[in-house]
Design goal:
alpha+beta, 3 domains, six-stranded mixed beta barrel, four-stranded antiparallel sheet, 13 helices, 11 strands, 52% helix
């Protein structure tokens, strides 16, 4: 930072010092000095550079905001709202069914399910085989062991078949798969068919497909939807999650009732919970930070560009004061003078836009490649960035241009 301050300070002071030192003293004393066109071109280049940066950042900010909004609002394949995830109910795994029954009696609870993984956590990645496949090809599927009620508590949707049910004693060897699994394994009419899971050397367990779930996200949208399956969880410990579907009525009271119920089953394990929507949105913390940084830098870039534009307009109005006076003497209206002074500013902003568009396009394309699901970038975003810049530029220069347009022509003609 110290080095940056020194370099910027020297650079900022070097050019005007160099220009002043290059003036011919005789021309200065005679009053015939003309700074030339170099300074004008440099001013124009600096303003174009500043507004190019501003437009690129404005476009980037809009795209980042749209992508974040898309990720947080996109249908995940299940309802993420009103989902409460309680950690470590395995502390009393032998009483899970009793805990479930007591929780369902709480007025604010709609459903509850237990699982070894929930979306946003790590699923087991296991190898499965198609039944009666002579080649014994293996297919990797993300697997979660779940209670019979978990799919309904999570809110996944069925494409065909049915969910797990206590009415079917054979569901302990049943499996639910998603559409991506059907596609990956090349299954046709999958409901009722069997797939195999290895349980030992040359030993397999047959699992009957009882339902196909609509595809849903178990990871952030940086990754594509993968094959997923649910199998019924057997007795035993291991890290578990209780997924509680709330009605949304008096949530604080419901949470208090859940904690009281928890404490009747265990006092060794603390009652720890998270709202699923908050946990899911945390997967995009880096993108949210990027969005905030873009907004801050866009405001800073626009402010600096406006300072440069203000300096340019001040210079233009000073150099053309006599011209404005002559035009007003011959009857030019304020609108004509405003158009005259604003024309160069509009021209510079349009040049900045033409330079900024390809930079913003390739930059946003590169950033969006990190997402399997991404928002469509509309050309209107680029036009909007230019319009925003034009409006800001016009507001910045309006004071100087209106003041110049209202200048008394007789006073203007007296200026040397």
């Amino acid at each position: 930072m110290i080095a940056l301050v020194i370099v910027v300070g020297i650079s900022a002071g070097f050019y005007p010092a160099f220009v002043l030192a290059s003036f011919n003293p005789i021309e200065v004393l005679k009053g015939t000095l003309n700074p030339g066109s170099m300074s004008k071109r440099l001013r124009g280049l600096l303003v174009v550079f500043q507004f190019t940066v501003s437009i690129v950042i404005i476009i980037g900010s809009i795209i980042v905001y749209n992508q974040l909004n898309f990720m947080t609002k996109k249908d995940l394949g299940f309802q993420k709202e009103n989902l409460l995830i309680i950690r470590r109910p395995d502390a009393f795994f032998t009483q899970i069914e009793s805990f479930r029954d007591q929780v369902l009696k709480i007025p604010g609870v709609e459903k509850i399910g237990i699982s070894r993984a929930v979306p946003g956590t790590i699923f087991s990645n296991n190898a499965f085989l198609k039944d009666e496949d002579p080649e014994k090809n293996t297919y990797l599927i993300n697997q979660a062991q779940v209670s019979l009620d978990f799919p309904q508590a999570l809110g996944v949707q069925l494409v065909e078949g049915r969910f797990f049910s206590r009415e079917y004693g054979t569901d302990s060897t049943a499996i639910l798969i998603n559409e991506a699994t059907v596609k990956s394994m090349g299954l046709t009419d999958p409901v009722g068919k069997y797939i195999l899971v290895p349980v030992g050397p040359q030993q397999f367990q047959k699992l009957q497909i009882i339902g196909v779930m609509k595809d849903f996200n178990i990871e952030s949208m940086h990754k594509a939807i993968t094959p997923v399956c649910f199998i019924v969880m057997g007795p035993g410990g291991g890290d578990q999650f209780a997924t509680v579907r709330l009605t949304g009525n008096d949530v604080p009271a419901t949470i208090r009732a859940l904690e009281e119920t928890w404490q009747t089953f265990t006092t060794r394990q603390p009652f720890q919970y998270d709202f699923f929507s908050d946990t899911w949105d945390n997967l995009y913390l880096s993108e949210m930070k990027t969005g905030k940084i873009f907004i801050i830098f866009s405001l800073l870039a626009i402010f600096l560009a406006c300072l440069g534009l203000l300096g340019l307009v001040t210079y233009i109005t000073y150099r053309r004061t006599r011209e404005i006076g002559i035009r007003k003497t011959y009857g030019a209206s304020m609108q004509v003078v405003l158009r005259l002074l604003s024309k160069e500013v509009v021209f510079l902003i349009l040049i900045s836009s033409l330079i900024a568009y390809p930079i913003a396009y390739f930059g946003s394309k590169y950033w969006l490649e990190g997402f399997a699901s991404k928002v469509n970038v509309s050309p209107f975003i680029y036009i909007l960035a230019t319009l925003i810049t034009l409006v800001i530029g016009w507001l910045t220069t309006s004071y100087r241009t209106i003041k110049a347009a209202n200048y008394n022509p007789s006073n203007a003609l007296r200026i040397n």
